[in-house]
Amino acid sequence: MARTRKTSQKEAVSAEITRTQGLFAAQELLSSVRRRHPHIGQATIYRQLKEMARHGELHNFRHGRATLYSAHANNVVHFICERCGAMQHIKLARADFVGAVEKETGQKACHFQLDVFGTCAKCAKKRWAMPGK
Ligand SMILES: [Zn+2]
Ligand SMILES: [Zn+2]
């Protein structure tokens, strides 16, 4: 029956999302779901991701032009070195952007994703070590 098949596909997708830690792209989710359910369609996955995001069950992040999802409202901060282009995840103990946004705009904030640019520790050291400069 078409209906039962749809339901079990939905459950398979949900189960895979529950198993996934951290951020994932729709394409990654599709390939891991297909390991157990080879015939699941791409459209099914995309539709369900949109649906879950709309209901607040999934959180959206951006990576370049791609949308990444997570079941957790983690805050993501990237530090990007302007000199060598290295990118690292950083954890900030105090960064209440969610609170600040709510306070200053009155909008219901959930989580934040932030790109911080600067000079990484390696490049900073290199600069100082350069002879004659
Ligand atoms: Zn969120
Ligand atoms: Zn650097």
Provide the descriptors you would attach to this structure in a database record.
single chain, 133 residues, alpha+beta, Arc Repressor Mutant, subunit A, Dna Ligase, domain 1, 2 domains, three-stranded antiparallel sheet, three-stranded mixed sheet, 6 strands, 45% helix, 21% strand, binds zinc ion
Strand order of the largest sheet: 1-3-2
Shape: flat
Kindly provide the name of the CATH class of the largest domain. Mainly Alpha
Order of helices and strands: HEHHEEEEHEH
| Rg over CA atoms | 20 Å
| CATH-defined fold name of the largest domain | Arc Repressor Mutant, subunit A
Q: Return residue spans where pLDDT drops below 50 for at least 5 consecutive residues.
A: none
Roughly how much helix do the residues carry, as a percent range?
40-55%
What oligomeric arrangement do these chains adopt?
single chain
Overall SS class: alpha+beta
* Largest sheet descriptor: 3 strands, antiparallel
